[in-house]
Amino acid sequence: MYCILFYVFQVAIQCLETTFKISPDDTHLAVSQPLTDIFLNALFKIDSLSNAKISPSPEDAEKAEQLKNEGNNHMKEENYTSAVECYTKAIDLDLKNAVYYCNRAAAHSKLGNYTEARSDCERAIEIDPTYSKAYGRMGLALTAMNKYTDAITYFKKALVLDPDNDTYKSNLKVAEQKQKEASSPVSC
Fold first, then answer.
1. Which residue of 29, 37, 52, 166 lies most exposed, with the fewest beta carbons within 10 A?
2. Which ranges of the chain have pLDDT less than 50?
3. CA dist 60 → 93, 95, 153 (Å)
4. Calpha distance 63→162 (Å, rounded)
5. CA-to-CA distance for 119 and 88, rounded, in angstroms?
6. pTM, whole model, 2 decimals?
7. Which superkingdom does the taxonomy of this entry point to (predicted)?
8. Closest CA to 108 of 129, 132, 124, 128
9. Is 29 exposed, middle or buried (0-12, 13-18, 19+ CB in 10 A)?
10. For the purposes of burial, counting CB atoms within 10 Å of the CB of 183, is it exposed (0-12), middle (13-18) or buried (19 or more)?
């Protein structure tokens, strides 16, 4: 079903581009999020809402936890693609576990897939708004995307939830420094 919807969406994008004579290269028309991301996030939210009442069976929950641990081992081995696959399988078994999304976000970040990491962090935060690690990982993904103001906001939220976390403090300082560097005029 998702493939069909995604294909229809791609056709719709092509129609809009042709009709209005625009392309992804028209940076002056840029929005905060690509249309594909907006579509996938909306689709995912609709799907997750329809499954919100579904809890995993004890067997599925146990299997999901095993897959998470397998993914964690892949992360230690720096085999990030396999980690993403394990976390995705865990998510398929338990849609409401914020840790699985957050772990997959970490793997996506290691692969340079920051948009996917951001989406996973958003989902983790939706599931558990008190999960500081999701805010911290969101900050890292946003920093990598040069969205320093947003990154700073997320690092500050992480620190509200976990005020003694030195990693969040350090990452906040890095994002603030990068924001200063990006906004200061370059001297010739």
1. 166
2. 49-52
3. 6, 11, 36
4. 30
5. 13
6. 0.71
7. Eukaryota
8. 124
9. exposed
10. exposed
